[in-house]
Design a protein that fits this description.
Blueprint: E1 3-8, H1 14-31, E2 47-53, E3 56-64, E4 74-81, H2 90-105, E5 111-116, H3 120-124, E6 129-137, E7 140-147
Parallel strand pairs: 4-5
Antiparallel strand pairs: 1-2, 2-3, 3-4, 5-7, 6-7
């Protein structure tokens, strides 16, 4: 069973931070063949959601309060599951846990995400609604989505 926790940046151990950066690089840089600046200065301002299975980090997201990524919205970003656990609904559990942590830590703040366009239906299942047209972010089609 996957076990989720949330920590601010200062609470992360060096081992946890290493695992986070390794998982993000494995999926966003290597698997998606997308060289981009992952270390963007937002991690120290984030709440980090960690999903462990058998002592291995297999799911992750970072949460930011209103005004950091979006002027009028809190945000959930860097949502990722390890290729080794795909198809087991851990992504859904990760998003549900992330939404709950946002509600607890950022009460009353609507949440905005920049979702890869092919995941629009996935995020619809969690209450997110598309806003605006799709756009390219790092050469990958994305769409803005809001959870009121």
């Amino acid at each position: 069973m996957i076990a989720f926790s949330s920590k601010n940046f200062q609470e992360l151990t060096t081992q946890e931070l290493y695992q986070v950066l390794a998982l993000r690089a494995e999926v966003f840089v290597v698997e998606q063949n997308c060289p981009y600046q992952d270390v963007d200065g937002k991690d120290p301002k984030s709440i980090h959601v960690l999903g462990y299975l058998d002592n291995q980090l297999v799911a992750y997201a970072r949460l930011l309060e209103q005004g950091i990524s979006y002027k009028d919205y809190a945000s959930i970003g860097r949502v990722v599951t390890s290729p080794s656990v795909r198809g087991k609904s851990y992504g859904h559990a990760l998003v549900d846990f992330s939404i709950a942590v946002c509600k607890k830590n950022f009460p009353g703040q609507a949440v905005k995400i920049s979702a890869q366009a092919h995941l629009e239906k996935f995020y619809n299942e969690h209450g997110f609604k598309a806003t605006g047209e799709s756009y390219l972010e790092d050469d990958i089609p994305h769409i803005g989505m809001i959870l009121a």
